[in-house]
Amino acid sequence: MDGPGQQRTEPWRARLRPVDRQILSLALPSLGALVAEPLFVLVDSAVVGRLGTAPLAGLALAGTVLTTAVGLCVFLAYTTTASVARSLGAGDRARALRLGVDGLWIAVGLGTALAAALLLTAPGLLTALGAPADVLPHAVAYLRWSAPGLPGMLVVLAATGVLRGMLDTRTPLWVAVGGAVLNAVLSVVLVLVVGMGVAGSGLGTAATQLLMAAVLGVVVVRGARRERVGLLPSGAGVLHGARAGVPLLLRTLSLRAALLLAAWVAAGLGTVSLAGHQVVMAVWGLIAFALDALAIAAQALVGRGLGAGDVAGTRAVLRRTLQWGTGAGALLGLVLAGVAWWIGPLFTDDDAVRRAVALALWVVALTLPVAGWVFVLDGVLIGAGDGRYLAVAGLATLVAYTPAALAVRTWADDGAAGLAWSWVAFAGLFMLARAVTTGLRARGAAWMVTGA
Questions:
Q1: Where are the alpha helices (DSSP H) in 129-197?
Q2: Burial of 268 by CB count in 10 Å (0-12 exposed, 13-18 middle, 19+ buried)?
Q3: Which chain regions cross the lipid bilayer (predicted)?
């Protein structure tokens, strides 16, 4: 028989242990998948960096455009995760898969349109972003060779969202790991062995993403067939996806505008700052996606909890994921601060770029606890379907960040100090503004709407 002390503590353990187990069972595989994705950029940067500073800077600018185009469509993953999880929480598996199939069709259409647009506008777009004359040819080559992979990239987003909503984060993990390995091989072979240069890096990325999309698409289609869900798009389902996705598109647009603004600032400072910015942004992406693993767990668990009407359980997920997110950010910050000086040499032999990378990474390390908080709260509100608030908050944070970014571009110089101030504005001020807006929302109950 348990003693008095055990009886008093058992209810606390009974509440927290299942929540922790649920969070970790979703977050750990998601972490592997999300870390694998930024490895595409890291490997491409390491390989292209051996060609010189101008090709690396070209990859920086073109890669920012490509990731912005894909990032604007991340609502394909977010809306499907939340809606599929809500439907499953309400006990309607067939509806969940119907929404997933419609999400795949939306991804194919958007991906095709974006690919055509980037192929046609690449030179003018990159020139408008401030690409120096020696950088422009490399940036155009990468963007045009990678653009055909956009339909695959968006299908990967949509299919991954479906599987996350069904609490399956292992399948996306294995596909992402396989894709990262294949991309690394193709990048080395096409860039350094075949001699295609930056274009080979773009081609390898496009081919890999198309293959990943095929694998994940087959998994979703098989699930739909088991539930006797049709594979053709439904008008109501596509309309639902579009309606749910527009607020998140606006929210994501503000985030991507901030990323583009940071790249524009670096390009205006000079070639050293722009090349260093590519390395720092690649590392930032790796860490941010790692923190986002907890946000993905929160999305799925919050969506399912609210779909089932479990308000108390949803609050428990909120509290616990915030603790995990802030702690993980602090730990990653310590690690990054310790290794920052040795990251630059992995990408370039230019001493000026190496110094700029190290100083900017120390700035990033200081801000990571706040980033962990922000990513988790973002995931909670997305899982709750609170897209309208996130759209408004995103605009407010962009307005707060813009003057600081303009000041850096106007007064800072090319090199380590300039790049560091750019990241003070982005990783410091911008992320702090996001922490305030999402934190205020989470304190209330307006976002906790129950039912499918």
A1: 136-146, 150-165, 170-187
A2: buried
A3: 23-43, 55-78, 99-122, 142-163, 175-200, 206-224, 253-275, 281-302, 322-344, 356-377, 389-412, 418-436
Output the pTM of the full model.
0.74
Q: CA-CA distance, 127 to 152, in Å (whole number)?
A: 27
The span from the CA of 438 to the CA of 435, in Å, is 6
How many other C-beta atoms lie within 10 A of the C-beta of residue 413? 13
Closest CA to 64 of 292, 354, 204, 262: 262
d(CA 53, CA 364): 23
**pLDDT tens, position by position, 180-198:** 889 888 888 888 888 888 8
| Cα–Cα distance measured from residue 157 to residue 161, given in angstroms and rounded to the nearest whole number | 6
CA nearest to 270, candidates 122, 121, 67, 134? 134
- What single DSSP character describes residue 148? G
CA atoms 123, 126, 128, 130: torsion sign: negative
Q: Are 357 and 344 in contact (CB under 8 A)?
A: yes
Q: Three-state DSSP class for 286? A: helix
E strand or H helix that includes residue 18? helix 4-49
Q: pLDDT per residue over 124-135, tens digit each?
A: 888 887 778 888
- 105 CB neighbour count, 10 Å cutoff: 18
Only one residue has tokens 């292992």, namely 170
